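fyi for ur records
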Amino acid sequence: MLKYFLVKIPGYLFFTLPMAILLAGMLSLLTMAKHSELIAMQAGGIDAISIARPLILVGLIGSVVMFFANETIIPWSNRHSEYIQNVEIAGKKQTTFVHFDQIWLKGPDSITHIRKFDKPSNTLEKISIVRWDPDFNFVEKLFADKARWWKDQWTFYGVNRTIKKPDGKFVVDVIPSMRGPLNKTPGDFQKGETPTKEMNLTQLGELIDQLNAEGRTPTRYLVDWHDKIAFPLVCLIMAALSVPFSVRIGPRGGGVAIGLAGSLVIAFSYWILHTMFIALGHGGYIPPVVAAWAANTLFGLAAGIMLLNASI
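which gave:
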């Protein structure tokens, strides 16, 4: 249990860092306001944007740290903590979740359907392959009852093949066995589905390219890919938001308490909005780029407008 929580610490820090920057910035400025330091700065001609620069620099550093952590230690933390929880604590066997039934493979000139893959015997059942030419004209349809992996290739059994001749006639052949035109190995069918939280940008991009090559729509993974870039910028946005609220709130009469409450409201509002947009993106209701960047755009614009108003 102790090992599990130690491994989860990077993930906890990752999600609490934006809140910490917002809280630290707001409380620091409210403390300065309480001792009339902000009034003295403004009387000396220092506007809100100048006051915000050190905080924005801290937010920018926080965003950079979050981005690189999300590429390195966070995927490791998520992957290893899942292993500890399921295997070392719960005592479950280490398993890989693979869909062995109804497999679809799409290439540039063909589409393949496999009803079932049997892992222990490395065999495929009920394979259908349809091929076409560059003009999308039918070329060949191949159906096999079974395929077995033998000597680094697939051998098809009980083959029924339909070929279209150049003169437009169709020829049907029944073949007891033949070498199958399938460029996948049994290992390709046994690869598990890795959660996006356990992958970095490069790995997620490779998965998206693979799904595109197979003719599948990687909408969910595209949303998560953009989110890995967009979410770390929340540190910069929270740092910018801490300034106008602190400058406008009176230092006396519960100013610190109001600042603390305001920090919580801002942080949770961002989280709820960002989660909602990500969910809409996963469902395909809005484009992946919009889903990942919508909350950042709204809160970033709000921070910029309030900073400008506070400087007037």
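Residues 2-84+212-311 form one domain. thats all i got for now
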